[in-house]
Design goal:
Order of helices and strands: HEEEEEEEEEEE
Subcellular location: Cell envelope
Largest sheet: 6 strands, mixed
CATH superfamily: Cupredoxins -  blue copper proteins
Helix content: 10-25%
Pfam family, one: COX2
Bound molecules: dinuclear copper ion
Keywords: Copper, Metal-binding
Strand content: over 45%
CATH architecture: Sandwich
Distance between the termini: 55 Å
Domain Cytochrome oxidase subunit II copper A binding: 51-152
GO molecular function: copper ion binding; cytochrome-c oxidase activity
Length: 152
């Protein structure tokens, strides 16, 4: 009888451990899943079809592309409005100096370099308003360079 009790206890322990791992992986409402870079002409963003009008576009059933320009001292568009329960790829570039793009309280975080497009893909969860900050020193207004990412 003791053997069965021990067996039941260890099965329960394993289930609890599995449960905590699964719970931990759910994480924050915006979670970064990938990060890469590609070139762009920083002196001609006005003529670039992605960045002449910074915006969020639907590109698939539950997939969105957000074209974002960082500048001294802010982000465009502001706020960046993206739908809940979707996959959002941010394409972020700078029109002047190096900036950061960090969605506060999440692991979505990348450096933004003029001449490069930082591509980061996130999964959104439920509606939340996130702060967006620059975490690379970029000049006198660095400390006030912020935006918003609104999951709706
Ligand atoms: Cu932009 Cu610091």
């Amino acid at each position: 009888a003791y053997e069965k009790l021990w067996l039941a206890a260890s099965v329960l322990l394993i289930l609890l451990l599995l449960g905590s791992v699964t719970y931990g992986a759910v994480g924050p409402g915006v979670a970064m899943v990938s990060d890469s870079e590609q070139p762009v002409d920083a002196t001609a963003l006005d003529e670039d079809e992605r960045f002449s009008e910074p915006r969020v576009e639907q590109v698939g059933e539950n997939e969105y592309a957000a074209y974002v320009v960082a500048f001294q001292f802010g982000f465009q568009p502001d706020p960046i409005v993206v739908p809940e329960d979707s996959t959002v790829t941010f394409y972020v570039t700078s029109r002047d100096v190096i900036h950061g793009f960090e969605v506060v309280g999440t692991n979505a975080n990348t450096m933004v370099v003029p001449g490069e497009v930082s591509e980061i893909t996130v999964e959104t969860d439920e509606p939340t308003e996130y702060g967006l900050i620059c975490n690379e020193y970029c000049g006198a207004g660095h400390h006030v360079m912020e935006g918003k990412v609104n999951v709706v």
